[in-house]
TrEMBL record:
Protein name: Short-chain dehydrogenase/reductase SDR
GO molecular function: oxidoreductase activity
Family per similarity comment: Belongs to the short-chain dehydrogenases/reductases (SDR) family.
InterPro entries: NAD(P)-bd_dom_sf, SDR_fam
Protein source organism: Rhizobium favelukesii
């Protein structure tokens, strides 16, 4: 039997790229999938691909930055598919390029609003039912800007670092009820977002290193993150709840290292033990 049979998964930003691959992989493992995004044609295409493979899915057009829209979306999902067991927050915005003093404040804030507020909204909508049922997993996608400075992508990086902290806070408040939260960095994947970084004037001016990374062959297939997230949904990495997992990880090796990572308090957004002692 497929590992996710009789479960319901929600994948935001599921109309293309990484999100579409995540939705397809969840369906291949038997999950019924709700595909969310703002662009109806894209998520309908993802649903069509799932249905063509014999799976069950629905397309739900939603702006995750609007909580009333998210509430309505989750009510529809519960009605048509059943209670959500896996939530994958893959939505993302990266429009504000450049140093802080040159970024349009509204564009900068919109990146934060979609990325961080959207993740809060969907998590808030999903957790009550998960807690009531005593099971659930939430996967929040982060990025390389989570743990490193990203001077010309400050809005995006700040939001992703905040999502990492939100993941830890959420997990710490739900794990006693068998509801777990995880962060996943899919790696550098060629997507609509990276295409804009590569070919827009602002991207070429402020983010030239992206092109160099692709030239150097740093291009992660989205299937790696999708397979990792399917393993998470199936419970393989429950020991690492509240921590960061990466698309580039060797999943078998990661499973072997889980206990040592936890013992070292690795893959977390925290001060070192020595720094903690000084506080």
């Amino acid at each position: 039997m497929a590992r996710l049979t009789d479960t319901v998964a929600v994948v935001t930003g599921g109309g293309r790229g990484i999100g579409r691959e995540i939705a397809l992989q969840q369906a291949r493992e038997g999950a019924k999938v709700a595909v969310l995004a703002r662009t109806a044609t894209e998520i309908e295409e993802t649903v069509s691909l799932i249905q063509g493979g014999g799976g069950r899915a629905i397309a739900v057009t939603t702006d995750v930055a609007e909580y009333s829209a998210v509430e309505s979306a989750f009510a529809r999902i519960a009605s048509e598919l059943g209670p959500v067991e896996t939530l994958v927050n893959n939505h993302g915005s990266f429009q504000a390029f450049g140093p802080v003093w040159e970024c349009d404040p509204l564009v900068w804030w919109r990146d934060v609003e979609i990325n961080l507020r959207g993740t809060f909204h969907t998590s808030r909508a999903a957790t009550p039912t998960m807690l009531a049922r005593g099971k659930g997993r939430i996967v929040n996608l982060v990025s390389g800007g989570t743990g490193n400075s990203f001077p010309h992508g400050s809005g995006y990086a700040s939001s992703k670092a905040a999502i990492m902290r939100l993941t830890e806070c959420l997990n710490d408040t739900t794990i006693a009820h068998n509801v777990r939260a995880f962060a996943v960095d899919p790696g550098l994947v060629r997507s609509a977002m990276t295409e804009m970084q590569l070919f827009s004037e602002a991207g070429k001016t402020y983010l030239p290193g992206i092109q160099q990374l692709f030239d150097d062959g740093v291009d992660i297939d989205p299937s790696r993150a999708a397979l990792l997230i399917t393993d998470i949904a199936a419970g393989r990495f429950d020991v690492l709840a509240g921590r960061l997992l990466r698309g580039v990880d060797d999943r078998d090796g990661l499973e072997k290292d889980m206990e040592s990572l936890v013992a070292a308090d690795g893959r977390a957004l925290r001060f070192t033990a020595i720094e903690q002692q000084k506080l």
